[in-house]
Specification:
Elements lengths: L3 H5 L4 E4 L15 H8 L3 H4 L7 E5 L10 H4 L4 E4 L3 H16 L7
Parallel strand pairs: 1-2, 2-3
């Protein structure tokens, strides 16, 4: 498994992406359970982020795969029914807009 601490430490926003069901079986990822054990957002992993961090996830989500039920139903989680990608992009553009950056490199 990867080092979650370096990726989650002091984050303001944690975005959970949905893993397509057909990708949870195969030689690199034998099961949804193994995916959750290695990569799923659990309360312990979320505790690495800022205490006021929000969790964003596109629906439908699968409890126990991408995200733990306690996190998905917790106060920090903001579900994005229908317009998940658009909401993520809008939120991610805010820091760039505030700094005057367009997000593009020359």
């Amino acid at each position: 498994c990867n080092d979650h601490a370096s990726g989650l430490r002091d984050c303001d926003v944690v975005i959970v992406l949905r893993l397509p069901d057909e990708r949870t079986h195969g030689p690199l990822l034998p099961s949804a359970h193994e995916y959750h054990a290695c990569y799923g957002l659990t309360p312990k992993r979320l505790a690495l982020a800022r205490p006021d961090a929000i969790v964003m996830h596109a629906e439908p989500l699968r409890h126990g795969v991408e995200i733990d039920r306690a996190v998905a139903n917790g106060p920090q989680t903001v579900p994005q029914p229908g317009f998940g990608s658009a909401v993520c992009m809008a939120v991610l553009s805010l820091p760039s807009a505030a700094s005057g950056s367009t997000g593009h490199t020359a």
